[in-house]
Specification:
single chain; about 300 residues; alpha+beta; Alpha-Beta Plaits; 2 domains; 4-stranded antiparallel beta sheet; 9 helices; FtsX_ECD; transmembrane; membrane; cell membrane
């Protein structure tokens, strides 16, 4: 215990003597781990959105109209019997096992939805119900079964085409995943800077205390006794930066994502402060491992004991 207290005393003494360099380590660690924490929160949000959107992913079975291409709809607009046959196929037929729920959207309802989304559009005023396509909107038990459902309805009389929103969602999530990668790249660069700063700080500290180290070596102090305070120094500085990064991650999750974004964008389930606690242990552990390893390597290389 006395040995540990001595080592901690030496560590804090050295921290006071190298305030500028220690502050640099704290600041760079804080910035780098904040990027890491933000990237982790983004990935958690993407996972949340992916699950939420895919649970609500609609498959649209568009029916033939008078304007449909003859190659696709050789019999012209869908007939009542064809419509009933398609609905029966969804209700009790081959597609039933894949469909969780469905609704029918008439041309009039499609026009209402179209106009509701384009209230200020001049072009929308000239659109009539005959210009719209009636459809069946399906929610699948498993969105991954879209290919099977598409094959089931391919070539069915009265069906023009089958479409889903997955292609659009994949593009959106691709962009968001790209932003996560950019954040991780920036974080990686900053982490390298942190490791270099920790190494530099330990080297300067070892150089400034070389006379004291020589005396300790002469009186028979062990290698661990001499080296441990330097390693503690790097770890403590990094932990302070990690603590600040954890606080910043909590602020981003609680106020930026959980409150501000949730108010700006409705209809999406956003993560909150609770998810930031899942990220924090990783930030602290990363800081300890990186700083501890960098300090240990530097001490072994530049501190001759």
């Amino acid at each position: 215990m006395n040995q540990l207290m001595y080592q901690l005393g030496e560590t804090f003494s050295s921290l006071r003597k190298n305030v500028a360099m220690v502050a640099s380590v704290v600041l760079v660690t804080f910035i780098s781990l904040t990027f890491v924490g933000t990237a982790a929160l983004m990935q958690l949000q993407i996972n949340q959105m992916t699950q939420d959107f895919y649970d609500r992913l609609e498959i649209s079975v568009f029916l033939c109209t008078d304007a449909s291409a003859e190659a696709v709809c050789p019999t012209g607009a869908v007939t009542d019997s064809q419509r009933e046959s398609i609905e029966e196929m969804i209700d009790t037929g081959a597609a039933n096992q894949y469909v969780d729920s469905y609704r029918y959207e008439s041309q009039e309802e499609a026009l209402e939805n179209f106009l509701a989304d384009r209230e200020d559009s001049v072009r929308a005023a000239n659109v009539t119900a005959e210009d719209m396509t009636e459809s069946f909107r399906l929610l699948l038990v498993d969105p991954q079964d879209f290919g099977i459902v598409n094959e089931l309805f391919a070539g069915v009389p009265g069906v023009e085409n089958v479409a889903d929103q997955q292609a659009v969602l994949d593009q959106i999530f691709g962009i968001l995943n790209g932003l996560t990668v950019v954040a991780l790249i920036i974080a990686g660069v900053m982490i390298v800077c942190t490791v270099l700063l920790v190494s530099t700080t330990i080297r300067l500290s070892a150089f400034s205390r070389r006379r004291e180290t020589s005396i300790m070596r002469m009186v028979g102090a062990s290698k661990s006794m001499i080296r441990t305070p330097f390693i503690f120094e790097g770890i403590i500085a990094a932990l302070v930066g990690a603590a600040l990064a954890c606080a910043a991650t909590w602020v981003v999750a609680e106020f930026l994502i959980g409150q501000w974004l949730a108010q700006q964008v409705t209809g999406i389930v956003f993560i909150g402060a609770a998810e930031s606690w899942l990220v924090m242990p990783g930030l602290v552990l990363s800081a300890m491992l990186l700083a501890g390893l960098a300090s240990w390597v530097t001490v072994r290389k530049h501190l001759r004991v």
